[in-house]
Every structure is written in structure tokens, then in C-alpha cells.
Amino acid sequence: MAYLTIRDLSLGYENQAILTNLDFTVDKGDYLCVVGENGSGKSTLMKTLLGLTPPIKGQIQWGDGLKINEIGYLPQQTIVQKDFPASVWEVVISGCQGRMGLSPFYKKEEKLTAERNLERMGITHLRNSSYRNLSGGQQQRVLLARALCATTKVLLLDEPVSGLDPKVTAEMYALIKQLNDEGITIIMISHDIEAAVRYATHILHIGGKVFFGTKEEYKKSDLGKFFLAQEGGGF
Question: N or C: which end of the chain has fewer CB within 10 A?
Fold first, then answer.
């Protein structure tokens, strides 16, 4: 059964649709990149999938026993978030809150999960550092560790390399691909179509025209050929 099934979905704000009649599925182990022009509804789609914005119509079905609190989410960072006055440890372990129920305290299990994900992201040495004093790439690793504390199944990533320099961007893409290779399903919004067809298994292109399929199908499609030519992609 698919982790996520979308049927006839229309989304937007205050009944003003920006995207209509959307259909796609995400299976366990997929790496789906959502691409499209600015203003096409990519971030709105992400918020709708998370239940933060109600759909105008249509069906969003999480399957295979997946619960909404088992989904890890890395949002786009704002200036305020970049200046958040907390330690790296406090930010990372806060990702466990969705699994704690009514308990106000972190138990041994949550602490071990946070420790594992610090190590996984290569940031154990930053454990006691102030989040606000980190570089952009370090902050994204912290936020990815936080998202991993919420899930072993699905990560939703909204422009995770935005504002990063090319070296750090490549490192972040490699980390995300490694997580996918380890079995975590990835749904990622990206402005970088070349990177999407390099790393993803499937592409959802939204905007004036909509495409959903494998990356190989996308590269052969008129829409994919057009946008890859615009970026100079020879993939």
C-alpha cells in the first residue's frame, strides 16, 4: 500500500485555488521531488500534506499504518528561526515531542534517539553550541537531525538547501540521498530541477502544466525537456 495517495486535490487559501485536480502517489522508499515555478503552490502543497492548511477539495490518504505524527518535517527557514536562542541539543530533541503523548519530560528513549541523530548528521561536537551562532549548513544539519527524531519512515523537506553555498549544498544532497538509501521515504520541494533528476526517483512538476512520474519519464517528457534545457541540464 502507498504511504501517500492524493486524489483530485485542489489547494489554496480562502477557497482561492492555486492548484487543482492533483493526483499522485508516494510508495515506501520513494524519493519524490516537487518542482515548479515560483508561486506554483509547492510550499502550500507541503503545508496541506501536513494538515497545516486545509485542502479546498480532494483526498489526502496516508497509508501503510503511517500516522501524521510519524512524519519528519524540515520547513524553509525564516530570519527569525535562524536566530533562535537555543542549544543544538534543545533544538534536536524537540523533534521527539510528537511521540511523547502527555508526558512533559524526555525519557531515556527520546534522549537516545536525539543522540543517534546528532551522530548521524555529524554534529555531536556541536551539542552544546548555540543554534543561532552556527553556519547555515550546520543549522540545516541540526534541523534535519530534529526532523529525524520524529520519524524513521517519511521526511518532508521544504527547500533544504536554500541559501547554502555549492559545497554545503552538495553535502546536504548527499546526506538526504543516504537517508533515502537507508529506507526513509523523501518528499522534497526543490527549485533545482537538475538536482531533482540526479537524486530523486520520481518528479512532481506543478504550475501551468502538471507532470507526475519517474525521473526517467520526466526527462523524456516535453515539460522536463523544456525546463532542463532552461537550466542547461544534460541529464
Answer: N
